[in-house]
Every structure is written in C-alpha cells, then in structure tokens.
Design brief:
Blueprint lengths: L11 E4 L2 E4 L4 H21 L11 H33 L25 E9 L2 H13 L4 E5 L4 H12 L3 E6 L4 H4 L3 H19 L5 E2 L14 H11 L2 E2 L4 E2 L10 H11 L5 E7 L5 H16 L3 E2 L15
Parallel strand pairs: 3-4, 3-9, 3-10, 4-5, 6-7, 8-9
Antiparallel strand pairs: 1-2
The structure holds zinc ion.
The site of zinc ion has 5 residues, from strand 3.
C-alpha cells in the first residue's frame, strides 16, 4: 500500500544564525576519496592485462604504452647483440663455433596430459614447401621442416617464410648424400655446422633441431652414429626421429590415400606423435594428403604443434 519512501532531509547546520547546507558529510567525502584512490591504483595495475584501457585516464594509458615500448626496445637490443656476436664468430677460422646459444630443455615435454602431434617435413625446401605452408596457414597449425641445402629464390623465400610464420626451421643436412654426410665423424660435424650456418645466413635464425638423414638408427653411416650423437649433444643440438611414418619416402609417388591411411592408422592414444613426411619436389601426394590428416587430427582433439625447445624428443637410439 502506502509505503512511499520519505525523502530524508539533509542535516542542517546553523552558523551565526545562517542556514548552511552541507553537500556531503565529511566522513563520506573522505571515504569516497579513499575509494577513488584505491580504484585508480587497481585500474592502473590491471591496465596492461585487462581491457579497461578505455576507462583508464590518458596518463595511465601513456604509461602503459611507454612500458611496452621499453620492452620492445630491450628485445631489439638483445637480438642486435646476438647478431653482432654471431657475425664475429663466423670470421673465426674454427668451424666449431656456433652462432647462438643452444636452448635449454627440461626434457619433460610440453602440455602434459594432452595428445600432441608434431608434423615434420624432410628434404625440402622445394615448391611443395610453399604449398604445405599455405595449407598449414589455412588450418591455423604449425609444423617443423628438416631442411637440406637447396639454394634458389623460391626455396630461400620458403625458409624465411617458415621462420616468419612461426613454423620451426630445422637441420637435415647439406647434401643428404649418405656417402658424404657420414664419410667420417669430421665430415658429419662439418655438414651439421655448415647447414646451421647456411640457414642462419638465409633467415637470421640459428636452429638447434636436427634430424639424421635416414634417422639415428640408419644402417648407411660409415662413421659411428654414437660419435655423431655425442657431438650433437655436446654442441647443444637436439635430434628428432619419428614414431609415425607416412611412408611417403618408400616410392617415387605414394598414393595420397595410402599416405593418409599410414599416418592415421599409427596415431592413437599416446601423448606424443612425431610424424615423418617429406616436402621434396617429387612428393606431391604428401601435399594432397595433408588437409585430410590435419582435419582428422583436429576433429579428434589432437594438438598439432611445431617442435620447440620444450618438446620431448623422439629418438630411435641415444648413443
Ligand atoms: Zn631425408
């Protein structure tokens, strides 16, 4: 019924007989100022991470921008330093020197408990690399490319694009000729370091990921693979074999459906799969098989990832 709220009259104060109306109680005023300060502080703290920037005063926004700028400058300085060091080292006669520090791995792997698939492409770059990069972009996934030395404008563009698109650039060898790469431990060392250097010259990136031509369990090496592995470990390289083979290397041109079937039949409930594929010029059916493979993996909740320093390596032998 008649529960109309009565307007509460503000308190009146008489000063020298004159009516003085207080706008606010002093206590309320103090509390509001305090709340405002707390609010401002908390907003400025969260300004960088949350999208409150619009509400934040211009001063705070400027501060944040300045901080971001500082970080960028610091990063640029760091990479400049690395570049300078690298250039200095290349002038040394010793081939043993490396262009940047090897990444530290904890060996524990990344995304524990998740099903992870690392798509890897060997023997490129070739015109197929461009097509594969397009497909990876289209599906929003990244892969790893174990490359050989194949100069040429398009190939060199592909190497740069591998890096700029967030895929992983890795070493396979200079020539892939077993008789040359594995002629002796010295030729092996030279091959690895020369390829690392060539990729650095093409892309400005020093890669520490390696795959043996024929894998670490190959029977074609003239030198002792244990020596090769020891050398890689000492230098800080991490080598990757595979636990899924697409079979696309077994003939000149394996049927597309066979490649899809080979890959999907080997992928199950393990936590980590490293899939061996090839992006050499002749491997056109691998390119054709790729969309189906990615679609299956995405539909079945596999993470498709590029190899990083945190990836647990799959290795056929350890020394
Ligand atoms: Zn190969």
């Amino acid at each position: 019924g008649n529960l109309k709220m009565k307007r509460v009259k503000r308190p009146e104060l008489r000063l020298h007989g004159q009516k003085v109306r207080l706008k606010k109680k002093p206590v309320i005023l103090a509390v509001s100022v305090l709340v405002l300060i707390v609010l401002l502080v908390s907003v400025s703290v969260h300004a960088a991470s949350k999208k409150h920037t619009q509400k934040v005063s211009a001063g705070v926004a400027e501060e944040t921008a300045a901080a971001v700028e500082e970080t960028t400058v610091a990063e640029e300085k760091l990479s400049e330093e690395e570049t300078t060091t690298a250039e200095e080292e290349t002038t040394l006669p010793e081939v043993q020197t490396t262009t940047a520090a090897a990444p530290q791995t904890d060996g524990e792997g990344e995304y524990p408990g998740c099903k992870k698939v690392y798509l890897t492409f060997d023997d490129g770059p070739s015109p197929n690399t461009t097509r594969i990069l397009d497909i990876l972009d289209q599906y929003g996934v990244k892969a790893t490319f174990f490359t050989i030395c194949s100069p040429g404008e398009e190939n060199e563009e592909s190497l740069k694009r591998i890096v700029s698109s967030g895929n992983t650039l890795a070493i396979h060898s200079v020539s892939h000729e077993y008789s040359q790469v594995y002629a002796s431990i010295d030729s092996f060392k030279e091959d690895v370091l020369d390829m690392q250097q060539w990729l650095y010259e093409q892309t400005g990136v020093t890669t520490w990921f390696y795959r043996f031509p024929g894998g670490s369990s190959n029977k074609v090496a003239n030198c002792d693979i244990s020596d090769c592995i020891n050398f890689l470990n000492e230098q800080g390289f991490v080598y990757f074999d595979w636990n899924v083979s697409s079979g696309d290397a077994s003939a000149k041109c394996v049927d597309k459906d066979t490649i899809v079937q080979n890959v999907l039949s080997e992928i199950g409930s393990r936590e980590e799969y490293v899939v061996l594929m090839h992006d050499a010029g002749a491997k056109t059916t691998t390119v054709e098989a790729l969309p189906e493979i990615i679609e299956y993996l995405q539909a079945n909740d596999y993470m498709i990832l590029p190899i990083t320093a945190n990836t647990k390596p799959v290795q056929h032998r350890h020394s």
